[in-house]
Amino acid sequence: MSDSRVQDVPTPAFELSYNGKSITADIAGHVLSIAYTDHLSGESDELDVELEDVDGRWLDSWYPDKGATLALKLGYRGTALTAAGSFDIDEVEYRSPPSTVRIRALATGVQHPLRTKNGRAYEQITLQALAQRIAKRHRMQLQGKIEAVNIDRLTQYHETDLQFLQRVADQHGYVCKVMDNNRKLVFWKRSDLMQSASVRRYTPAQLMGWQAQDQLSKVPAQVDVSYHDPAKRVLRTASARADAKAPGGKASSADTVKLTRKAAGKRQAEQMAAAELERRQLERTRMSVTVDGSPQLAAGSNIDLDGFGKLSGRYQIQRASHRISRQDGYVCELELKRVAASAAQDKRKTP
């Protein structure tokens, strides 16, 4: 006799397309696992599909083409699936016995010019104009609000356009990434992401596993940025000091990080010092957690962790690895950095 009080366990679901055509029904019985990794910045998002090949069809008629496009949606049966994006096939790996094929794909394909290293110089430009120029060069749509940041001179040292832009964005307190199969270049201000509401709240009992690292001595209390004042022909210094109420603000380290940067003036140097301090303060408390899968858990989103003592707080997702497999169902592994010392201080309700 069935018990109406027992809830059905949600069934993970996915939809996979190959060059725009759905192949879900054809491959569903062969799939061992599908893993999608979402990075906030610095690395290309990745898709990893592992399948059985008992009859050798993946070596013959189903052999995937390098450079072909895979598109993934994931979630749970009975709900609208969430698009994870499009990926260009980069590598195909076979193993036997047992016969399996593993297909790896990247959101920024290896054949895309964004991955070509260049050397260029830019003068008298804003961060917005720089981002717009690179987006236009690669026929992408620039999205996100970028405040006025005037830059006298920049040099791209044998870097890809994306690496160069991410480096400059990071120096000014922004993160950026390529999305939607190289069609969009998206910018976020790091502080805006840190202040956004959490999408989920977890207690220790809700985690499958977790690991934390709290650095007590490597986080600086102050950052000094030295810059050349061309009008006075002298070296000047702008500083940013940690707020004691901010996460990591009471770090035991009294160190001051000293940097030399090209800046258009005191205001820009102060922005760069604040951005560097913000980035380093985020390194103080990090956690890795494993939870039930949810498409809500995207890189850049925040979650609240309660019941972890002094490690409790609001954390930003730096990397989200979504994995659907026969053995474990739908699981997420998250790499986190704390952005607020105590979730209890925030009265907003989250799921």
From TrEMBL:
Cross-referenced InterPro entries: Phage_Baseplate_Hub (IPR052726)
Q: Which SUPFAM superfamilies match?
A: Phage tail proteins
Q: Tell me, what's a Pfam family for it?
A: Phage_GPD
Q: Where is the signal peptide?
A: none
Q: Which PANTHER family match?
A: FELS-2 PROPHAGE PROTEIN
Q: What is this protein called?
A: Phage late control D family protein
Q: Which organism is it from?
A: Chromobacterium aquaticum
